[in-house]
Amino acid sequence: MTPALQLTDLCKSFGPTRIFDGVSLSVAPGERHAVIGPNGAGKSTLFHLISGRLSPSSGSIRLFGRDVAGAPPARIFASGLARNFQINSLFATLSARENLRCAALIETGHHRALWRRAAGIRDLADKVTEMLDRIGLGRRGDIPCDQLSYSEQRAIEIGMAAISGRQVVLLDEPTAGMNHAETDRFIDLIRGLTEGRTLMVVEHDMGVVFSLADRITVLAAGKVVASGAPDEIRGNNEVREAYLGQHAPAGKEGAEC
Ligand SMILES: Nc1ncnc2c1ncn2[C@@H]1O[C@H](COP(=O)(O)OP(=O)(O)OP(=O)(O)O)[C@@H](O)[C@H]1O
């Protein structure tokens, strides 16, 4: 089966500083894949490379078999990949509904149309309303984003990535800054919104990683230290030394590294 995402021998340097030195990994369609590693391991850089914000120094990035390494973000999006951003990327003075509508308009191509079919616009409005319900903002969808709570804003970001309908969704630290209850709710939300799609997630919260992921890749010092099922990663001595250390989840996870 063609992988949804395949990175082969990926290298990235910033000037003389080498961040990645031959990173390879493969994500199957429908898989939930987490990328973990110590601060500065290059997890966000990896997402920037996959989503086209940065170009690799060498190596290939294949999305459903098509090489997209170095392609502009819009082409990568059109090839089937959507992402959120670690920093807040919403239109702050627009409502949740308006932000989601912007994301949905890009998906449908309506943003390019000079005139629009009324039926298409109605479908779009229904889709946005459904997404507002799913992210728990059914009653607060018309409030400007900058008046919503932090977790509500993060939920909108995930909703915007999900409403695009892309087959591969990248989420960069979707639960950063959340309390335990919010984190639990977000795990369910992410699971629901990415059902039947391929998810790649960067997270520091091991509870989230081990609850969500089918497979985990560990990055450290510019290389893949290990890639495998959660149990394999949990039991891997090299991973424990490189990253999990004494915080390694023994059974029920919850440690933040
Ligand atoms: N534009 C850039 N120019 C130079 N160095 C950069 C640039 N972007 C990132 N780096 C460096 O690349 C390395 C990896 O950074 P990155 O943010 O990808 O790590 P990370 O694993 O996501 O870290 P964290 O877990 O703290 O978010 C760091 O040493 C960082 O300083």
UniProtKB/TrEMBL annotation:
Domain of life: Bacteria
Transmembrane parts of this sequence: none
Keywords, ordered alphabetically: ATP-binding, Nucleotide-binding, Transport
Pfam families in the record: ABC_tran, BCA_ABC_TP_C
Transcription regulation listed as a keyword: no
Gene Ontology molecular function terms on file: ATP binding
Signal peptide: none
Gene3D superfamilies: P-loop containing nucleotide triphosphate hydrolases (3.40.50.300)
Protein name: ABC transporter ATP-binding protein
Source organism (scientific name): Acidimangrovimonas pyrenivorans
